[in-house]
Amino acid sequence: MSEVILELKDVAVFQKESLVLNNISLHVNKGDFVYLIGKTGSGKSSFMKTLYGDLPLQQGTGSIVDFDLTKLREKDIPFLRRKLGIVFQDFKLLPDRNIYNNLLFVLKATGWKDSKAIDNKIKEVLEKVGMQTKGFKFPHQVSGGEQQRVAIARALLNDPELIIADEPTGNLDPQTSVEVMKVLQDINKAGRTILMATHDYALILKFPSKTLKLDGNQVFEVIQRAGR
Questions:
Q1: Fewer CB in 10 Å around end: N or C, the chain?
Q2: Which residue segments constitute the domains of the chain, with CATH numbers given?
Q3: Whole-prediction pTM value?
């Protein structure tokens, strides 16, 4: 039987008092690559924020990487986020330190102490995203695509069970988007589960996978066929 990483039943997503999405029931299994699509304003970001604890789950039931979202407390959120890797559209790298030290900051903040283990882990994740020779550079010295590769490396630091990528190619040109997608595909093939919000339909056609569409407050699965 497949291991379920994310399961939602009869979930409603609210942004303050406004109902954004209603009656969501879905599950994501370990090793899946799932797209989340929908027009701007359809609720993709609110949906993602509910998954990583930025918005509380007020209606329905849900579990993600063995955390019950209905019982999630403020003090649980840092522990939840250690089991998730989150990749944002705008990279969110610290501009005042180089790439290596961006990753070092995250490991120290999440309790890593052994300097050799830290060094090995940083080298390992940079190699996975093809940035092993760029650790000394500052974010402004590398391209947008390279910054997003670093953001993906950062998401891998604590061996997350699920990577949540919110429009990871949204600020990139088409060629760079494909390169970043190939990195995500390789990570998925190595066994990592990925949920990716996107509005880039060209990427979905090029890399078909399970697709969930947000439309009219609902979420439903779109059947994708390879090579169409």
A1: N
A2: 32-56+73-207 (3.40.50.300)
A3: 0.91
